Amino acid sequence: GAVVSQHPSRVICKSGTSVKIECRSLDFQATTMFWYRQFPKQSLMLMATSNEGSKATYEQGVEKDKFLINHASLTLSTLTVTSAHPEDSSFYICSARSSYNSPLHFGNGTRLTVT
Amino acid sequence: GENVEQHPSTLSVQEGDSAVIKCTYSDSASNYFPWYKQELGKGPQLIIDIRSNVGEKKDQRIAVTLNKTAKHFSLHITETQPEDSAVYFCAASIGTGGTSYGKLTFGQGTILTVHP
């Protein structure tokens, strides 16, 4: 149980374009999803907290207009990187939990490369 | 905010030996401490977790201990195997309820290598 699916696993896009990443909870309803970013050989940095039906809460330093998060249903959250630049290249990972007291489970990440 | 420090950054052991990874946290309000294993190119996988009302938890070859007074917790892996090789992250949660519950702060990670 507690499977989180993330798609695509890899994406290459040109500078200036937008990319959408999907995060789905396959066998549970996720009240909250979190989006993380990870640079090579570094730890996970929280970007934003997404609650179903409400606006995402962004961490300090994360541009909300650049990283658009939508959590329209209890099983799907999307992260859209708008007007991507090479410095946005990174490993983006989503996570989800079914309730406030349940463990957090992660997707397998999306490797974004902006050329 | 919460700050989690993890040591060592790299750990190399022989197959069959034990491995210990330690973490300290700064926020005394943190009450949930999970450990994740991350293999190359994949997302973190939860391997064990502990809550602040428990001092120790064990699951087969993996155990976690928590010292609330000292604000540190440790991961113990016994009888290590080559497939245990991965990056291990500790984490601590901020807050005890509401929408911020489960918002994890991660340690820097430990690259564990188990030599056959």
Folded structure, characterized:
The complex is a heterodimer of chains A (115) and B (116). Chain A is mostly beta strands and 115 residues long. Helix content of chain A is 0%, strand content 52%. In chain A, strands 2, 4, 5, 6, 9, 10 and 11 form a seven-stranded mixed sheet that branches. Chain A has a four-stranded antiparallel sheet with strand order 1-3-8-7, with no helix packed on it. The termini of chain A are far apart. With 116 residues, chain B is mostly beta strands. Helices cover 0% and strands 56% of the residues of chain B. Chain B has no helices and eleven strands. Chain B has strands at 4-7, 10-14, 19-25, 32-38, 45-51, 56-59, 62-67, 72-77, 86-94, 103-106, 110-115. In chain B, the strands form two sheets. In chain B, strands 2, 4, 5, 9, 10 and 11 form a six-stranded mixed sheet that branches. A five-stranded antiparallel sheet of chain B has the order 1-3-8-7-6, with no helix packed on it. Chain B is globular. Chain B starts with a strand and ends with a strand. The model of chain B is unreliable at 95-99 (pLDDT under 50). Chains A and B meet through strand 5, strand 9 and strand 10 of A and strand 5 and strand 10 of B.
Secondary structure layout:
The complex is a heterodimer of chains A (115) and B (116).
Chain A: E1 4-7, E2 10-13, E3 19-25, E4 32-38, E5 44-51, E6 57-58, E7 67-73, E8 76-81, E9 90-97, E10 105-106, E11 110-114
Parallel strand pairs in A: 2-11
Antiparallel strand pairs in A: 1-3, 3-8, 4-5, 4-9, 5-6, 7-8, 9-10, 9-11
Chain B: E1 4-7, E2 10-14, E3 19-25, E4 32-38, E5 45-51, E6 56-59, E7 62-67, E8 72-77, E9 86-94, E10 103-106, E11 110-115
Parallel strand pairs in B: 2-11
Antiparallel strand pairs in B: 1-3, 3-8, 4-5, 4-9, 6-7, 7-8, 9-10, 9-11
